Structures are given as structure tokens and as C-alpha cells.
User: Which sequence fits this backbone?
């Protein structure tokens, strides 16, 4: 019962928001804050009860072997914390922006929040798939209604592409389901079924599941939908996509891939890791030559997610812990980066970096805060990015030194493209587009300040964050080793 | 009208009584037919409710009422037959009024063309059916389904052959009725030429009845279908899924689009019932209920926008002019495309799971590809609705119609959460 409010709070908020007309933003923010408070309460309960997994299960579609089962361990809790921290920030980021039919926008956002939260706590393969798909529908309509030029084509591609991937995942799940002893989709049964398969079949199942995740994250060469979609998406949509939604895939690797096919991963995992590392380098290089700031963030996101994916697939305590922390940091940093984009575009109407320049001299506060975010993204020590990336690269290095070294390049390349964007937009001469630049409002400062505080706070003292998931990660890996 | 709807509802309640009843050894109300009758009643009530103005607009109201109800009686015969003669009677009672209804707009050339085409091809398929039944009789010496089933095992090789030919002929006749490729060519033209309410009636009630009859027929032959014939039927499923979806993707006329969409659902239903056979009732009941509700919703909104042949552009900007209608269509489209959390997903899932359990993995892959293609054309409609439109807001829907759309929308979502069957 403890877990139901995680779904119900956003769901009820979505309905209330839809019917609250002009006050929609207050209702949505209130709901998301309530959700955050509840998550913190769960964190407290979880820690005081000796970090015991919380579960909930009722039968749902017995003839199909599907039950409505939820579970919350340290790993799920991390992701739930991520989504409930990011959600109010996304809503607050669009506080004073002028969106048509705002109540619908916020209702869809809360609906998506419910689905994403559900995917983080689902303990039934079928249910996970359902939540995974449900999350796609609101974001599709958000991009279709509030998106930019060419949205019809781009969003359809996005939808079809992701759908294709998820169908492969569903296919793999059904295959596992047929091999379960008790014919259910329950998490443990799928684990058992997966582990009982011969290596070759495990490899195929792994390929099917990974395809869904690779498209969602995305990993080269399945990334072609992503830069376009981020580009046309309205800012809150882009924040949701990169802040929370892609974590469904990285979380999926931990929960629905590694423990299901341990032998397959051991045998063929190196290919997937190699692909992820290629993805890191590819996206980094492309990022360096981008002219548009938003596209740059999009490719930077591919690079970072590639690192998370490579690390997680190497499946040791360091890398998985690092991956979890990095998911949290990436979510917060994404909100920061997209918010800076939003601020600049709302003043100048463009995010082409060649047309911008010298904004720092007009608005030093923005310049300073943007710098901190950039430092967090490039993983400077004492920022949140550092903890995660360090652990990820360490774990990857333990797995394979060559791949680890190549993945390590991502930090250097990251410095190149992030600093280049900072230089072009913030420093140098003031260009025409930035002449009438208005300083940022208090609301904007508040949000950026929050992002900066989180970046530095997690960076300086990451221990409590790491402690949340450590026990669960160790248990998970022990389960595989048997 | 209202009284009749209520009667249908009453009948529905009555049918829920779990008793078995044989009617002169010709038809039976049992665990098989009752659920289908209930589905037919639900769809019938929704149809009468949503399209009640159809009768007000036409001059000869009572005629159309009578025709619809006659045809409905035929549907009831088809789902509850136990005798092949009864099956034939049911098919004819169902079809003949529909031939008339299709041509009910007497001055419309397309309507007349559709009616004539439907009549000719319908007669043709009736021939097949009769011929098939005759051959089955020749092989087994009985019209009774249960008796036939018991005699199948002990047949001489000659009679085996007769039986098989009879089986194939009858299935071909059914394939005409449910519009499975390659017997589907009449469907797009007829659906396009008929008035929208009649099209809606054909893709829901007529199709469900035909499928229920077909399932019963399959079940009687469970285990006696030779491998080659089984492959032929799987090929039928494959063709239907592929042809329907590929052609639908290029349609610009909404009625034709819906026609091909309906054919593609035929493919799914056929796959489901043929691969599961025994115990496929629940699957088919659920599928047809969900599919029927989604179709009725889509056709209701289509009818609200335009009565004649509708171009896809007629839906342009609907989200701005009539939000409820637009959302109802979106839900219907998502459900038909099989996207969770809508009921259509569970329905399609059950079909594909049945096919996989029957060892037809390749058909599952085809089904998945077909679903993806389907998303493409269903979403074409959704995307058009989001385009800005300069057209003046359309006339508002009546209260009863708004409630109708609400009920359909809630059912489409609710049947996932609480799957009754």
C-alpha cells in the first residue's frame, strides 16, 4: 500500500490540473511537491526499516499471468527520487512562459510522471512494458501540440521508432514468459526463466531487450530520432525526455537486463559495451561541431548516456552505483542546460551560438550559474557529475582497460564542446541578437540556483546518495553470481 | 426507438442467466453463444444510441427500423446455431436487410453501386456456403454440428476428401463475409458507398456475428483440419494482415481507411481464433467488444463531421473545434493501433500470445509489423487533428451524443483495467 501513492499522486494531480483552468500551474506544482514530500517520506521509511524492499501485489489479468506488482528497493528509490526532484523543477521552469492550453500541458506532464514512476517500481514484466509505453503517449502529444517547426514528421518518427524497440522487448518478455515454471510475468519468474536458458538464447533475448533500451536512451546507431525530437520539443518536453524518460531505459538495464540474462551478458556483453563506447565518441565529436546550442545538448546527452550504458553493462558494484548517481546528476544537469537554453531563446529568439555572445557581460548572474552547470556536466571534481562518471569509468576499467580508456576520453571531449558553447554564448563581444538582452528574473534565478546547489551539494557529499542503493546493488549482483 | 434500445438492454440482462437451452435442435443458448449475444447487444445498443438520428433523417423510418432489427435477429441466429441449415438461414437473414440498407440513399450513385456490388458478391459467397454445407452433408450425412463432429473421426478416405473440400468452401464463404484477403475486394467500395451508420453497422455487428459463427465452425473441426488446409488458413491471416495495412497506409479517404483498418482487424481476429481454437471464445468476445466500441466511436465522429465520402482533411483542427470528439477519436485510434493502456492493446496482445502458443512465431512477427504500419495510418488522422484550422467551430454535439462519446471513451480505457472476459 505504501507504493500506490507514488502512482496516485501524479495521476490525481493530472486530473485536477486539467480541470483547474487558469490555476493549473499551481495545482501541478503543488502535486509534484507533494509527490516529492512523499518520496522523502518513503526514503525515511526505507532507511529506518533497515532498507527492506517494499512490495505490493494484487492479481490483475490472471489468465495472462499478469499481476499488478510493485516493488521498491534502493535502486528503484533512487530513480523515484530523481523523477520527483526533477518534476517540480520542470514545472517551475515553465512558470512564466506563455503556453497555449496550459492546463492540458501540465496534465499531460503529470500523466507522464505517473507512468514513468510506475515503470521505476514495476515488478512484473508486462506491467513494466505497459508503463513504458504509457509514458510515450503524453510526451508524443506534448511534442505534437507545443512543438516547433516540422513536428508532425519528427514526432511520428519518434513514436514509431520507440514503439518498434519496445515491441522487441515485449517479444523477448513473452519468450521468457513461456519458459517460466509458473507461467507468470513476475520479476523473479522472469529472472529464473532467463537464467535457465542456454547461452545462445540468452544472447538473443538480451539483444531484443537491449534494442528497446538502445532506442530509448539512445545509443548509436539508433539515435537518429533524438536530436530532431529534442530540437522541436518545447522546453518542458525536452527536459522530461532527457531528464527522466531516458532513465527508464538505463534503469531497465539494471532491473530487466543484467539479472535476466547474466550468461548472455558475460558472453556477448562486450559487443553492447563496445557499441556504447562508439556511441560516446561519435556523439562527442558531433557535439563539437554543432552550431545550435540545443542540438549540442542533445548530442551531449547521447554521449553521457552512452557512458552510463557502457558502465552499467560491465555489471560490477562500482559501475552500477556510478550509473545510478550519474542518472540522478544527468537529470538535474539536463534541466539546468535546457533551462539556460530557454532563458536565452526567450530573450534573443535564437540559440545559434554564432549569433550570440557576451551575455555574461550583460547578465553576470546567468553567466556564473551557467558556468557551474557546465562544470557539473564536464564532471569536474566536487560537482555531481564527477562522482558518477568517476565510478562509471572505474567500473568499466575493471571490466576492460581499453574500453575504459576510450570511455575516459568522453570527459576530455565533454570539456571541449561544453566550454566551446560557454565561450561562444557567454564571452566575447556582444552580438546584435543579444543587444536588448533582459536580465534574468527572480524566478529564473531561483531555479538555476537550486540546480547549482544540487550540483555542488551532491558533488561535495555524495555519501548519503550512494548509501541508498548500495545494499540493493550488492544483492542484485550476488543474485547473478549464484 | 428508445423503447427498442431498452428492450435490447433488457434482453442483454436476460441473456446473462447461465442456463443452457436448446431450440428445436437448431440453435442453442449456451456458454458459447450467450457472451456473443451480449456483445452484440452492447454494440447494438451503442449503435442505436449513437446513430439514432439516422432514422429521423430518412423518410421511411419504420422500414429501416424493421430492416435493422431483422438483420440483428440474423446475427443472433448466427452466433447460436448448432445446425448448418440454421447457419445458412442466419447468414441470409443478416445479409438481405443489409443489402437494402447499403443502398438506402436511393439517389446516390455510389450507394447504389455499393449495394449492387454487395448483393452480387454476397450471393456469390452464399453459393459457396451452400455448396460447402452440401458437401459436408454428403460426407457425414448430417447438418447437426455436434453429430458432424462425432462422425469426422470415422470417415472413409473418399468422404474425407469431400469433407475437406466442404470445409474449405465454407471457410471461403466466411472469408467473404468477414472480408479477409483475398476475399476482401468488395469491402472498401461497399463501406465507402454506404451511409456512415450502415458502414458502422457492418463493421461491428455483422462482422462480430460472422466471426462468432466461424469460431464455432472451427471448433467443430478441431483436430480434424489437415496440415495443408491449416497452412492455407494461416496464409489467409498473413495476406489479410499485410494487404490491409499496406493499402491502408496510402488511403486519404477516411471511410476507405477505416475499411482497410477493419480488414486488418479481421486478420488479427482470424489469427487469434484459428491459432487458439478451443477456448478462443473469451479472446474473440473481448476483441470484438473492444474493436466494436472503437469503430463505433470513430464512425460516430466521422458522421458528425460529414455524411458523404470524407477526406482525411475533414478532421483538420478538430482538437481546437471540438475537443471531446477529437479526444474520443484519439482514444479509438490508439486502441485500434493497439497501444497501451488502451483495451485494444490487451486484445491484440491476446491474439499474438495465442499465435505464439500455437507455435506460429512468424505470424507474431507479421502481426507486430502490421501493428507498426497501422500506427502510421492511425496517427496520420491524429496528426491532422492537431493542425491549425481556420474553419469555424463545428456545430456542438447534442448532450446524448456527448454522453455516448464519454461512455465509449471510458469503456476503451476501463476494459483494460477491468477486463471482464
Assistant:
Amino acid at each position: 500500500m505504501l507504493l500506490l501513492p507514488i502512482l496516485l499522486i501524479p495521476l490525481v494531480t493530472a486530473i485536477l490540473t486539467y480541470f483547474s483552468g487558469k490555476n493549473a500551474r499551481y495545482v501541478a506544482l503543488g502535486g509534484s511537491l507533494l509527490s516529492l514530500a512523499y518520496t522523502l517520506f518513503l526514503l525515511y521509511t526505507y532507511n529506518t526499516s533497515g532498507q527492506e524492499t517494499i512490495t505490493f501485489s494484487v492479481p490483475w489479468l490472471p489468465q495472462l499471468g499478469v499481476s499488478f506488482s510493485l516493488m521498491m528497493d534502493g535502486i528503484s528509490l533512487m530513480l523515484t527520487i530523481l523523477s520527483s526532484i526533477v518534476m517540480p523543477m520542470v514545472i517551475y521552469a515553465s512558470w512564466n512562459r506563455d503556453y497555449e492550453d496550459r492546463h492540458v500541458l501540465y496534465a499531460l506532464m503529470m500523466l507522464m510522471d505517473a507512468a514513468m514512476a510506475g515503470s521505476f517500481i514495476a515488478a512484473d514484466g508486462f506491467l513494466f512494458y505497459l508503463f513504458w509505453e504509457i509514458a510515450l503517449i503524453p510526451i508524443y502529444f506534448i511534442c505534437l501540440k507545443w512543438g516547433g517547426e516540422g513536428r508532425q514528421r519528427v514526432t511520428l518518427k519518434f513514436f514509431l521508432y520507440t514503439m518498434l524497440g519496445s515491441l522487441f522487448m515485449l517479444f523477448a518478455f513473452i519468450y521468457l514468459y513461456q519458459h517460466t515454471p509458473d507461467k507468470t510475468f513476475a520479476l523473479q519468474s522472469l529472472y529464473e526463466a532467463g537464467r535457465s536458458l542456454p547461452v545462445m538464447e540468452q544472447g538473443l533475448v538480451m539483444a531484443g531487450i537491449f534494442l528497446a533500451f538502445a532506442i530509448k536512451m539512445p545509443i548509436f546507431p539508433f539515435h537518429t530520432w533524438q536530436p530532431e525530437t529534442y530540437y522541436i520539443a518545447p522546453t518542458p518536453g525536452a527536459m522530461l525526455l532527457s531528464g527522466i524518460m531516458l532513465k527508464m531505459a538505463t534503469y531497465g538495464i539494471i532491473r530487466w537486463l543484467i539479472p535476466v540474462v547474466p550468461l548472455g551478458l558475460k558472453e556477448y556483453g562486450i559487443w553492447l559495451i563496445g557499441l556504447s563506447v562508439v556511441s560516446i565518441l561519435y556523439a562527442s565529436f558531433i557535439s563539437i561541431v554543432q552550431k545550435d546550442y540545443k542540438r549540442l545538448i542533445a548530442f551531449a546527452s547521447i554521449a553521457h548516456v552512452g557512458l552510463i550504458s557502457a558502465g552499467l553493462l560491465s555489471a560490477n558494484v562500482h559501475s552500477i552505483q556510478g550509473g545510478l548517481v550519474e542518472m540522478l546528476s544527468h537529470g538535474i544537469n539536463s534541466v539546468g542546460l535546457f533551462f539556460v537554453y530557454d532563458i536565452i531563446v526567450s530573450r534573443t529568439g535564437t540559440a545559434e551560438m554564432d549569433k550570440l555572445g557576451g551575455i555574461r557581460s550583460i547578465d553576470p548572474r546567468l553567466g556564473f550559474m551557467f558556468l557551474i552547470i557546465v562544470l557539473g556536466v564536464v564532471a569536474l571534481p566536487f560537482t555531481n557529475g564527477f562522482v558518477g562518471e568517476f565510478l562509471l569509468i572505474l567500473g568499466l576499467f575493471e571490466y576492460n582497460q581499453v574500453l575504459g580508456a576510450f570511455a575516459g576520453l568522453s570527459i576530455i571531449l565533454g570539456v571541449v564542446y561544453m566550454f566551446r558553447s560557454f565561450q561562444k554564448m557567454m564571452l566575447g563581444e556582444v552580438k546584435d541578437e543579444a543587444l536588448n538582452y533582459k536580465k534574468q528574473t527572480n524566478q529564473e534565478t531561483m531555479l538555476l540556483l537550486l540546480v547549482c546547489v544540487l550540483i555542488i551539494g551532491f558533488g561535495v557529499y555524495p555519501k548519503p546518495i550512494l548509501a541508498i542503493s548500495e545494499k540493493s546493488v550488492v544483492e542484485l549482483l550476488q543474485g547473478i553470481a549464484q | 426507438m428508445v423503447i427498442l434500445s431498452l428492450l435490447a438492454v433488457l434482453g442483454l440482462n436476460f441473456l446473462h442467466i447461465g442456463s443452457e437451452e436448446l431450440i428445436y435442435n437448431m440453435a442453442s443458448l449456451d456458454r458459447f453463444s450467450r457472451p456473443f449475444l451480449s456483445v452484440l447487444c452492447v454494440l447494438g445498443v451503442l449503435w442505436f444510441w449513437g446513430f439514432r438520428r439516422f432514422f429521423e433523417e430518412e423518410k421511411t423510418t419504420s422500414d429501416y427500423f424493421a430492416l435493422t432489427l431483422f438483420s440483428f435477429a440474423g446475427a443472433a441466429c448466427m452466433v447460436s446455431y448448432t445446425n448448418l441449415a440454421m447457419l445458412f438461414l442466419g447468414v441470409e437473414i443478416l445479409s438481405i436487410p443489409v443489402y437494402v440498407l447499403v443502398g438506402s440513399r436511393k439517389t446516390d450513385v455510389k450507394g447504389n453501386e455499393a449495394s449492387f456490388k454487395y448483393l452480387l458478391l454476397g450471393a456469390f459467397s452464399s453459393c459457396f456456403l451452400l455448396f460447402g454445407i452440401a458437401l459436408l452433408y454428403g460426407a457425414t450425412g448430417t447438418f447437426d454440428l455436434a453429430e458432424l463432429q462425432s462422425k469426422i473421426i470415422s470417415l472413409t478416405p473418399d468422404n474425407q476428401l469431400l469433407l475437406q473440400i466442404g470445409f474449405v468452401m465454407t471457410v471461403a464463404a466466411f472469408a467473404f463475409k468477414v472480408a479477409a484477403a483475398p476475399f476482401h475486394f468488395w469491402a472498401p467500395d461497399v463501406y465507402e458507398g454506404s451511409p456512415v451508420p450502415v458502414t458502422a453497422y457492418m463493421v461491428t455487428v455483422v462482422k462480430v456475428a460472422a466471426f462468432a459463427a466461424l469460431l464455432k465452425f472451427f471448433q467443430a473441426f478441431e483436430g480434424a483440419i489437415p496440415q495443408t488446409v491449416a497452412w492455407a488458413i494461416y496464409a489467409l491471416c498473413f495476406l489479410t494482415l499485410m494487404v490491409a495495412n499496406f493499402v491502408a497506409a496510402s488511403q486519404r479517404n477516411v471511410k476507405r481507411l477505416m475499411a482497410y483498418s477493419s480488414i486488418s482487424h479481421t486478420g488479427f481476429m482470424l489469427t487469434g481464433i484459428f491459432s487458439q481454437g478451443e477456448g478462443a471464445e473469451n479472446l474473440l468476445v473481448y476483441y470484438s467488444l473492444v474493436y466494436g466500441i472503437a469503430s463505433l466511436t470513430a464512425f460516430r465522429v466521422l458522421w458528425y463531421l460529414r455524411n458523404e465520402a470524407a477526406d482525411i482533411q475533414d478532421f483538420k483542427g478538430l482538437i481546437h473545434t471540438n475537443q471531446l470528439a477529437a479526444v474520443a477519436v484519439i482514444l479509438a485510434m490508439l486502441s485500434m493501433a493497439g497501444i497501451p493502456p488502451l483495451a485494444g492493446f490487451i486484445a491484440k496482445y491476446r491474439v499474438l500470445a495465442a499465435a505464439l502458443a500455437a507455435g506460429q512465431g512468424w505470424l507474431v512477427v507479421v502481426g507486430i509489423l502490421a501493428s507498426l504500419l497501422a500506427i502510421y495510418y492511425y496517427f496520420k488522422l491524429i496528426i491532422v487533428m492537431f493542425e491549425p484550422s481556420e474553419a469555424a467551430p463545428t456545430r456542438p454535439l447534442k448532450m446524448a451524443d456527448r454522453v455516448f462519446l464519454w461512455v465509449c471513451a471510458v469503456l476503451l480505457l476501463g476494459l483494460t483495467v477491468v477486463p471482464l472476459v
Remarks:
- Chain A is about 75% helix and 5% strand.
- The mean pLDDT of chain A is 89.
- The longest strand of chain A covers residues 54-61.
- The CA atoms of residues 98 and 374 of chain A lie 27 Å apart.
